[in-house]
Amino acid sequence: MLKKCIKHVLIMSAALMWVVAAESVQAYRTDHGFLPPGANVCELHVPVTLEVPPNAKAIPDPFNGEFSHGFYHIEEIADGLFYVTDGVYQSMFLLSAQGIIVVDAPPSIGVNQQDPTASISIVDVIYSIPETQGLPIRKLIYSHTHLDHIGAASIIQEAFPKVRIIAHRKTKEQLRSGTGELEGLLPGAGSNPPPLPTRTFAKNKTVRLGEQVLHLSYKGAAHEPGNIFVYAPNQKVLMLVDVIFPGWSPFTNLAIVEEVPEYIEAYDEALAYDFETFIGGHFNRLGSRADVIEGQRYIMDIKANALAALQNPALFQIFGAAPENGLGAFSIYLDQMACDCANRTLDPNVTPSRTDWLSRLGTADINTLSHCWEMGEAMRIDPSF
Length: 385
Prior knowledge:
Elements (H helix, E strand, L loop, with lengths): L1 H20 L3 E2 L20 E2 L24 E6 L2 E5 L4 E7 L2 E5 L18 H5 L10 E5 L5 H4 L2 H7 L4 E5 H9 L21 E3 L2 E6 L2 E6 L11 E4 L4 E3 L12 H5 L3 H12 L5 E3 L9 H22 L7 H4 L4 H20 L18 H18 L4
Parallel strand pairs: 6-7, 7-8, 8-9, 13-14
Antiparallel strand pairs: 1-2, 3-4, 4-5, 5-6, 10-11, 11-12, 12-13
């Protein structure tokens, strides 16, 4: 499993080096020369630069030697609650006198990209600090089904066969329906799928271990069915994975969301918690309430600009450009709608919040286009709006 993990990381590293070598890449298609004047808003594209704005900079920064363990970082947030990151993924664990509660098991954590032969497992990562010595892992919580976040769960179960695995019931249903046939697509996943949860819940569940407590809550498919809020009330820490990305725009297509209205609602639902620290599951730095509020403002800009783009009469001309190919014309219309929305969103003089998102959020130059496409199409067909 570890060899597959190392191979994957090396391939991804090579691909990233190729991308970074490109000085400027166009984010939007501009080759629709047959379109009527005013209908090709994609030609007003924003170039992709791969620049990272200060708000999105890594904290701690591994390139400045700030990681606690070289190729991964562990830090106590408060009162026995630790988070761990490899710079791309995050997990957290909670210590009590009776043992450890772990939330998520990303298979990439523990992979040493500089020296793959020195890679270790996520269990070794957790036990690389003095505070965990002598404490067994008693409980493991799945935030959702995606293997890039729980693909190393079998390693934890192998080390602690009596570990209690807790997840939403929809997460168990999805894991049970998998075939386990895909191999080598993710580091650590391979033919060793995550073990099924041993405890499930429908709406809310309180997890206790000694003096520590976590509140689990399911509020809908903000990312996918079964994706849960994990709240540590004593430490005022909220974990919600793959929805909100502090300092960054979400992953492509609103983080491959399945229900856009519920995704939008997740921001208000997160802000209803009394939290000071936010863990989004990705990147190095922790988030705050201010990060969640800023992320919500970005999403609301996209929503407003998608509506404006859908109502842009110039884009309706596209359907007359290819009357014999309605499906093709409609696909081009949706692309242009997304470009119109993205152009509005990335222009601080036009977007409703008047925020310069290019200077605030990492990958805004790359991902805003797909967010606009996802939002616009959902608004067009989803009666929940």
